[in-house]
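SAMPLE LOG
Freezer: B-3
Tube label: C17
Construct: single chain, 292 aa
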Amino acid sequence: MMKRLLFLNFFLILFFIGCVIPESNHVEPEYHLLTSVTLDDNKTFRIPEVSFHVREVNLPPYLDDNRLVQRKNRTSIDYLENHRWGEPLGEGISRVIGLNLSTNFDSMAYSYYPNRSRQDVIFEISISIIQLERVDTLNVVVDAMIEIFHKNNLQAQLKIKDIVPIADNEMSSEIMALSACISKVSNLIAEQIYKLPASQCLLVKSDNFESDEESLEVLLSKLSSELLDKSTTDFLDQDIVRISEDFGLTEYPLVSLRAKNTSLYEIIKLISRKSGFPVKFTRTGIVFYSVP
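STRUCTURE (predicted):
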């Protein structure tokens, strides 16, 4: 009987020990978002009438993960299990660049991936991230390629590689430094777009532009003169608005129009419609082509 009681007590002890749930070591991850950051070198390039779309951002596979990355050396990285992105990193980059450019241009006519581009958008921006992570205890780095398009015509190709210091060892400071990297990318894009002929045409308004059966050649010469007189940049060529060298016609069409307090951008589009000749905005000028 005594042996049975001992055996029963031993069995009950084992049973209750087995029912004890060990304390969990699981730590709930902390989720982070990139944000708009104002830098000391931020400049305003106001183009209130500009519209733009930030396309899907291309990321290297190692960054296409919701875990934050820290680089140990040139060939090794660490994934932080307890610190993750609250949205896909590519979408966060396109969102913040859209916000930054909207503030910089003072324009609300913008969209960013995964939202669709507007049909009449003036500029589209493609970004390829090569590197965006902490590289040591003190710094984060951004390395990116940028392409700017107007109606699918390439306007500019840019590259940026920059280092931003981290204020302290808090993870929030690392996120702010990464956000500052995206602000640097945004500033570079804004500066380049501001210089483009299409943007300068948006900025310059004509008080009263009139034409009574004037040839296309004469009209474009007048537009070039007005753009050169009122432009805020000094890189424009004398024949910034011109006819293509292979236009293929010896006699230019006559155009009549009236436009008051209208941007040169809209006037150029109006001339294109009235003359029947397509126009292409390039990185060096505005060129009219004959119909093939």
